[in-house]
Model the fold of this input.
Amino acid sequence: MKQTPPIGTVGEIRFVVTAQHAIDFADEVMPAVLSTPWLVWFLEHAAREAVLPFLDPEESTVGIEVDIRHTAPTPVGQEVVCRARVIGAEGRRVLFQLEAYDPRERIARGSHRLQVIRKERLAEVVRRKQAPEPGAS
Done:
């Protein structure tokens, strides 16, 4: 890392909820609303946006901890703003406070921890996992 992201650094992602982001069990009674897995995806990317300016070219991030409370529904067609604010860092681990809002209210809050990694080192770990195990037939 060029430097540790300062406390208070914010990353933000805005998106409009589409059918792709909605729960897959909507029906004539259950409305199509933003699914929690997609919300987590966007919140994690907001955290990544906060860290990217501080990374060296050979580095990236991986999420290692997520604690989210998805507290309100957001219908398809509405915009969501996801914000991640750095609240701490220990070495190559960065801790974030997360919040998400739709036009009416806060829809989620929680925390997230990213690990800054070296891309080539992760690639080597993955290559080893993909290789056949010795003695396997």
User: Anything to note?
Assistant: The domain at 10-130 is CATH 3.10.129.10 (Thiol Ester Dehydrase; Chain A). The longest helix spans residues 36-51.
